[in-house]
């Protein structure tokens, strides 16, 4: 049962389709609110219903137009705070500026920390996100942060949709993703590989190439796993390398499909069977432009994390226990699902 204070879910303009899917699974209506721009570009927010003493969740992803989406989120949080909401949780499936998590060169900003500060100052009490680019971003906050994992969804897709996965090899395109791919490989009982990206010369504009440091992909189903794709440069180099090394099939499973600087026709020409992303970022336009693109729905995971947060239940049980509890269509019944099984709503 839900607590006495009801769940109130709001959203900005970043990903209304995901917010609608989440509310349908929870059987909770979206709070009507208007988020629009003045003629000078300033953002105005109007919340049409009371949120006083309510448990508020604001779903807003850091996708295209990241700055506008971030400002919408901050203003929505501030508006709910001044409207006396009991608790405000920012649900940010794709965290903005996550790649700027460290000072990797002189005078470089740590913008992810700045975003964390702004969320707290605006009045946010709790953050829910998914597959942070760097897990240490959680330490930038002085409030609770739940970093959800797409790993159960990845395992489910591999087992259900990739023919010959038992003869597969899980591939990381860089050293930073080694921990992620080894965990998936261990759960599947298959091997893993690590690719290293390097330049052919010392010049900044020297051509780049990749070489396999660990693992043998010859005559195997290569399954490339990463957290983000934006320009597609890494994917292009990695798939060509795997193809040259004799992989008989190539799949890429990537959580956040930004795809902001890539011509989707390039993916069509790559030696890749399928590019699989989640809908932490809207993918409707991308799907229309690429027949190789498959989208996994994360709304059941988001909905269940909201339900658990509201009821004071453990979020980690979604990923630690063998059995998962997934919200159903009427929001009051629960159904047991095994890790690795397909997430779906059952009526």
CATH class of the largest domain: Alpha Beta
Secondary-structure element string: EHEEEHEHEEHEHEEEHEHEHEHHEE
| Rg (C-alpha, Å) | 21 Å
Number of helices: 10
Low-confidence regions: 321-347
Largest sheet: 7 strands, mixed
Average predicted confidence as pLDDT: 86
Task: Give the beta-strand count.
Answer: 16
Helix content range of the residues, please? 25-40%
The neighbouring-strand order within the major sheet is: 10-9-8-11-12-13-14
Structural class: alpha/beta
CATH topology name of the largest domain: Rossmann fold
Give the CATH architecture of the largest domain: 3-Layer(aba) Sandwich
Strand % is 25-35%
> Span between N and C termini?
18 Å
Pathway: Metabolic intermediate biosynthesis; 5-phospho-alpha-D-ribose 1-diphosphate biosynthesis; 5-phospho-alpha-D-ribose 1-diphosphate from D-ribose 5-phosphate (route I): step 1/1
EC number: 2.7.6.1
Family: Belongs to the ribose-phosphate pyrophosphokinase family.
Organism: Lentinula edodes (Shiitake mushroom)
